[in-house]
Amino acid sequence: MRLLPSVLAAVTLVLAGCSSTPATRFHSLLAGSGTAAAPAPTRYVDLGPVGVPAAVDQPQWVVRLPDDSLRMLEQERWVAPLRDEVRAALLDGLRQRSGVGDARTAPVPPGDVSRVRVDVLRFESAAGRGTWLEARWTVAPGDLSCGISLREPADTDPLALAAAHRRAVNTLADRIGVSLSTRGCPA
């Protein structure tokens, strides 16, 4: 009878191992820790909350399959709500490549602070086809309104899709940086 508890424990462990789910992977739109130090800001931006489509503003990824159906990938998740990830990545890109500081977190010298509003209209992952980012942004003062539509190639691997989304958001940050510098929409 002493053997029965040990056998039951072993069977329970084996069954638990068979029914375990794959580990959840977390992804970020921010570049890895190997980025260089940003230059001191030469101008400042007040980047408001970023709007994203409700269908993708959730932790789990939504991927379009080749037959145009959608699948939620429970094990692939953004590390933060997508709207926050996009905002953080845009601010990081503006800081790194355009010398723009965040007016909400830094002491801002007297002068011009641009207010930027970004609305992501489309943030799509398509298995085997890549990613699609469509966004509009406004800059005030000046009432400038610009837009962009970007496609980035990627295969079906979630790591490749995450890298494609990072490239697209970096391009969006670069275009916003150009519009802040020139007070016009980039070509």
Give an overview in words.
The chain has helices at residues 3-18, 82-98, 158-182, and strands at residues 25-27, 43-47, 60-64, 70-78, 100-102, 113-126, 130-140, 144-152. It has 187 residues and is of the alpha/beta class. Strands 1, 2, 3, 4, 5, 6, 7 and 8 form an 8-stranded mixed β-sheet that branches. The model is unreliable at 4-16 (pLDDT under 50).
Structure summary, number of beta strands: 8
Question: How many distinct helices?
Answer: 3
Query: What integer value in Å does the Rg equal?
Result: 22 Å
SSE string, helices as H and strands as E: HEEEEHEEEEH
CATH level 3 topology = Rossmann fold
* Spatial shape: globular
Structural class: alpha/beta
Average pLDDT reading: 87
What is the annotated CATH architecture?
A: 3-Layer(aba) Sandwich
Sheet with most strands: 8 strands, mixed
Helix content: 25-40%
Kindly give the count of domains.
1
Uncertain runs: 4-16
The separation of the N and C termini measures: 80 Å
Characterize the quaternary organization of these chains. single chain
Q: Which superfamily, in CATH terms, is the homologous superfamily?
A: ABC-type transport auxiliary lipoprotein component
> Which strand-content bin applies to the residues?
25-35%
The CATH class label is Alpha Beta
